[in-house]
Amino acid sequence: MKKKSSALSAPGKRVGKSVRHIPDSQIDFSDMPELSDQQLTRMRRVGRPATGIAKQLIAIRLSPRLLTALRSMAAKQGKGYQTLIHELLEKAASRAA
Predict the structure, then answer these.
(1) Which of 50, 81, 57 is nearest to 7 (CA)?
(2) Cα separation, 94 vs 97, whole angstroms
(3) Domain limits of the chain?
């Protein structure tokens, strides 16, 4: 099985190796205030949504003018530009097939 590569930079990897893991039982949480029920209900998950379908990370070079146009189109549609690019490529690939 291929080892999953880290998204950290080289300096980040060095820092990560020098940090010692501390078990939860040794962390002092006494200075953290308790959250109210109202605060807990307003909390939202941060990060990528779990769709169940992992996407492949790639690098692609686009002209600055094209990228600006795509970002503008995506903003008008209320979505991220990477999502828009994915949708456009998906449509083009299904037409070509």
Answers:
(1) 57
(2) 5
(3) 63-97
